[in-house]
Amino acid sequence: MSQPDLPWEGGCRCGQVRFKVSAAPILTMACHCTGCQKMTASAFSLSAAIPSEGFEVTAGEPVIGGLHGAEVHHYFCPHCMSWMFTRPEGMDWFVNLRTPMLDGAVDLPPFLETFTAEKLSWVTTPAEHSFPAFPPMETYQALTKAYLER
Questions:
Q1: β-strand 94-98 against 112-114: which pairing, if any?
Q2: I need a labelling partner for 31 at 20 to 30 A (CA). Which of 19, 128, 130, 136 fits?
């Protein structure tokens, strides 16, 4: 895996919202759920779980979009509506950053893929672990350990 030195920077398509990543990801993922398919207008979404203390918005004010429920908050640029990151309720120790929002070519292939039960039949990823929905909570510790040891 070829990753440039931290910090990394990124932002929305129009540039009004910018962020900085100063901590390495603890997992990378591809999500095949139909919600991600619709929000990305693609076959899946790509993301990296970044420790919260290693993520900061440096310009602009993202707004909540996508689902507006209490369980998950999807953050978008209010102008170009780029989906940039997600903060799951009750899991404030990480930010789920959409990796295509990073500047440059940061090589973060998905280590695991979720919601394969909903994936389009022709899609393949290089993910080493696949789950029909979200992985069971008790597997995350082993998954993050395996990711960090690669």
A1: unpaired
A2: 19
Q: pLDDT for 89-124, tens place per residue?
A: 888 899 999 999 999 868 899 999 999 999 999 999
Residues paired with residue 56 on neighbouring β-strands, in sequence order: 20
pTM tops 0.70? yes
Domain boundaries along the sequence of the chain = 8-149
Collect all residues with Cβ–Cβ distance below 8 Å to 76 and sequence separation of at least 6: 12, 62, 63, 64, 65, 66, 82, 83, 84
Choices 3.90.1590.10, 3.30.450.20, 3.40.50.300, 3.30.2350.10: CATH for 8-149: 3.90.1590.10
Tens digits of per-residue pLDDT, 9-35?
A: 999 999 999 999 999 999 999 999 999
| Residue 50, burial from CB neighbour count under 10 angstroms (0-12, 13-18, 19+) | buried
Contacting residues for 122 by C-beta, under 8 A, at least 6 apart: none
List the single range of 8-12, 69-73, 76-80 with lowest mean pLDDT.
Answer: 69-73
Tell me whether strands 8-11 and 83-88 are parallel, antiparallel or unpaired: unpaired
CA distance 10 to 46: 15
